Amino acid sequence: MTEKRTSIHGQWSSRMVFILAATGSAVGLGNIWKFPYMAGENGGGAFVLVYLVCILLIGVPIMMAEILLGRRGRQSPINTMSALAQEAGASPRWAWLGWIGVVAGFLIMSFYSVIAGWALAYVLKAMSGDFVGFTGDSSAAAFVGHIGNPGITTFWHTLFSVMTGYVVARGVKSGLEKAVRILMPALFVLLVLLLGYAINTGYFDRGVAFLFDPDFGKLSREGVLSALGHAFFTLSLGMGAIMVYGSYMPGKASIATTTFTIAFMDTLVALVAGMAIFPIVFANGLEPGAGPGLVFISLPIAFGQMPGGLLFGTLFFVLLTFAAWTSAISIIEPAVAFLVENRGLSRRRATAVVVGLAWALGLLTVMSFGGWGFTFEFAGAQKTDGIFDILDIVTTNFMLPLGGLAIALFAGWVMSSKDTAEELGSGETGLYHVWRVLVRFVAPAGVLLFFLHSLGTF
Ligand code: PFF
Fold first, then answer.
1. CA nearest ligand 1 atom 11, residue
2. Which of 167, 214, 407, 456 has the highest CB neighbour count under 10 A?
3. What is the predicted pLDDT for the residue at 439?
4. Would you say the pTM of this structure is higher than 0.85?
């Protein structure tokens, strides 16, 4: 038995709070903004099916591994990995996994905050009644006008960065726990309301068929890799965010049950968002493959038409902002925890450094939509948003799956089965063995196959 560690950053007050915080991290722009447009760009059903398989066979076991490592190490991912490697008699180079996660966190935060800034700006637009009378064309024109103005998008990006920094600087417990408790259920209720609207558009069947009828002819090599990458992105896996949250988890809580709860809620939100959005897309003659603007163009049309749309529209973008907020704090937490542990910075200083750097990097995404966009080809798909697309592909399609692969290998092959069984609290039961096979063989092989496929090997 190793000595039980404690985290210097504090601990969640209960298992329930850990679930809320981790769900807050998982459910974000990835579910409501990204999932629908990726499904749309990749032809729908087949993409969704591959994504669901990835969640279940690769995402869930790796999430359990990531929480387990965090809770056992009880430090920032970099220090956790070196402590656990030492404990297992393995190379100290495993700390690199933590470093790659920190870099991925900066890159993701840089564009995440810009998109969350769009959501913030849309709160104001919804409130001022801008959506009233929107058609497909006028909504698209308003969106393009908005993101094409770097001065304005920088303003909202800055505001969102400051909001994120404010919460992270205050520490693990204050504020955030309470917000997540109320806001996540509210977001879900609002999505269900939108779903009700979508059902009445007359295009519900078509939307559902688009999402769930698999047509593999429509799925490109790039689409397959994106489905894998998105499974990691949406569950916040592969870069230490869930690991660092796990390091604040109370000792006794069951990792398996919590993981299933988080993955289930995350998937549910994405699917409900998809089912709400595609009927509106089809009813208004919009293009499902419209890209990052899909949600920002389709939903305002609905809000502009429905009774009470002013209120619901405002509420929706407020809640979307909150979903993004509770995710953003987890994206930068690994880097902040590291600076506090190893550089002796106060939490506030550390947060200011991390947010400042990510903010500056974010200007590249602002400009990708504000005039610097360029087109390139990736794995047979046409990309039009320049640096934003590059940042997204490098992090989501490569860094997160590779980070997840390393996490699986470490938990499955480097750590002893005695240690992992002890940490999972399961004993070496049947379910434990299922997890171990998934994490040792299925998840790593899955990630490698996806990479080979996207390279065109088969
Ligand atoms: N899971 C978040 C979302 O779906 O919006 C994004 C995210 C959070 C990615 C934390 C990575 C991460 F570490």
1. 236
2. 407
3. 98
4. yes
